[in-house]
Design a protein that fits this description.
Keywords: NADP, Oxidoreductase. This is NADP-dependent oxidoreductase domain-containing protein. One of its GO terms (molecular function) is oxidoreductase activity. It comes from Eucalyptus globulus. The chain is built from 16 helices and 14 strands. The protein is about 40% helix and about 10% strand. By secondary structure, the chain is an alpha/beta fold. The protein folds into two domains: about 325 residues, TIM Barrel; about 80 residues, no CATH class. It is globular and about 70 Å long. Strands 8, 10, 11, 12, 13 and 14 form a six-stranded parallel β-sheet that branches.
């Protein structure tokens, strides 16, 4: 295992003056989503150990708990610790009457920021990150030294005011599309974009990473260990508690896990050659993406934290980078399947799709019948339902790309269209709290 005595170097995150440690600490799992909340004394000790070890970039969100993770950070930052750290938080999800909604209006942005400041027990946050809608996923905003934006572009203008008032230092985005990043950056300079980037989550490399670099925006990589998979492989899934949302992730389901475990085994072989752990190797791969990237692996154990910072001493050759990337290429990771109503059964509590009208009980039974009919055609064609649905899209014109292995006759096209006609699907695509293509390109309001 690589030693964890590496002196923590610092990097410039973005071009607005923020400097952070080359590796941060994601705090979500201390309070939410990864099993029961951990004890405050243990987590405060971990945070203090991290700061004492030189890791001073801490990431939280008002949705973690909700709110309890920020309160935990507030306790940990007392006694002069706040002055030693760069703190980022997120906002964009509001809880009202037991329901979760996406909010980004100016009044909410200001209220969320001030509430985070109070919970964190500080006067100013470094980055505040609102969320957006990349790949139809809700995005959360972050507060701290950086505040991250949410889905409504009007909030950028309000965040700009909060910067001018000295309540936040920098603005960031979480899970934003390239076009959203450009529009937001035109209103106020964006310091950082937070996104999932790891050996097996690399879809951001096509457009989002180049956009950030073109605009001089720093990159904060969350889940750099593949939700913990690159630490212990399939053993992770065996030990997940019943309230750990990862048990519902497609990549950890039985039909995908055996295949993905083979990828882990190959990564582990390289790690053994390098004299490091597989988690250190996976983290080292992220670090080698550039000095504008700060991974924020999370943990609840000091020994795992020490192992993670040891990744900074792992040096990879260009040949080793290529070898790793070929193992976990985009088309070699299994975990994205269309399964009809089983999708809804396995949606985790923080998956926004549970709120979509088409997946609600009053509509799901009807729509499942549509899926069953599509599945019948897929079986006739010798393909999966997802392949059939994609083939229908490909057949709309030659300007669509992809491997067209499924050929549809005009009669089959008509049959598919009659099954899922506009008046035969129950429930809209989104509820009122979500933006759609009709307003997604609206410029941000200053």
């Amino acid at each position: 295992m690589a030693a964890s005595t590496t002196t923590m170097r610092r990097i410039k995150l973005g071009s607005q003056g923020l400097e952070v440690t080359a590796q941060g600490l994601g705090c979500m799992g201390m309070s939410a989503f990864y099993g029961p909340p951990k004890s405050d004394p243990d987590m405060i000790a971990l945070i203090h150990h991290a700061v004492g070890s030189g890791v001073t970039f801490l990431d939280t969100s008002d949705v973690y708990g909700p709110h309890t993770n920020e309160i935990l950070l507030g306790k940990a930052l007392k006694g002069g610790v706040r002055q030693k750290v760069e703190l980022a938080t997120k906002f964009g999800m509001n809880f009202a009457d037991g329901k979760r909604e996406i909010r980004g209006d100016p009044a909410y942005v200001r209220a969320a920021c001030e509430a985070s400041l109070k919970r964190l027990d500080i006067d100013c946050i470094d980055p505040l990150l609102p969320t957006s809608h990349r790949h139809s996923r809700p995005h959360r905003s972050h507060y701290l030294d950086i505040v991250v934006l949410s889905c409504e572009y009007a909030q950028i203008g309000e965040l700009k005011k909060l910067v001018e008032e000295g309540k936040i230092k920098y603005i960031g985005l979480s899970e934003a599309s390239a076009s959203t990043i450009r529009r937001a950056h035109a209103v106020h300079p964006i310091t950082a974009v937070q996104l999932e980037w790891s050996l097996w989550s690399r879809d951001v490399e096509a457009e989002i990473i180049p956009t950030c670099r073109e605009l001089g925006i720093g990159i904060v990589a969350y889940s750099p260990l593949g939700r913990g998979f690159f630490s212990v492989g399939s053993k992770l899934v065996e030990n997940l508690s019943k309230d750990d949302f990862r048990q519902y992730l497609p990549r950890f389901q039985p039909e995908n896990l055996a295949h993905n475990t083979k990828l882990f085994d190959q990564v582990n072989e390289i790690a053994q050659r390098k004299g490091c752990t597989p988690s250190q190797l996976a983290l080292a791969w992220v670090h080698h993406q550039g000095d504008d990237v700060c991974p924020i692996p999370g943990t609840t154990k000091i020994e795992n934290f020490n192992q993670n910072i040891g990744a900074l001493s792992v040096k990879l050759t260009p040949e080793e980078m290529v070898e790793l990337e070929s193992i976990a290429s985009v088309d070699n990771v299994k975990g994205f399947f269309s399964v009809g109503s089983k999708l809804v059964e396995n949606i985790s509590m923080d998956d926004f799709r549970q709120y979509l009208p088409r997946f609600r009980p009053e509509n799901l039974a009807h729509n499942t019948k549509l899926f069953d009919r599509v599945n019948e055609i897929a079986q006739r064609k010798g393909c999966t339902t997802s392949q059939l649905a994609l083939a229908w899209v490909h057949h709309q014109g030659d300007d669509n790309t992809g491997a067209l292995s499924v050929k549809l006759t005009p009669e089959e096209m008509a049959e598919l269209e009659s099954i899922a006609s506009a008046d035969n699907v129950k429930g809209g695509r989104y509820d009122g709290s979500m933006s759609t293509w009709e307003n997604s390109d609206t410029p941000p309001l200053s």
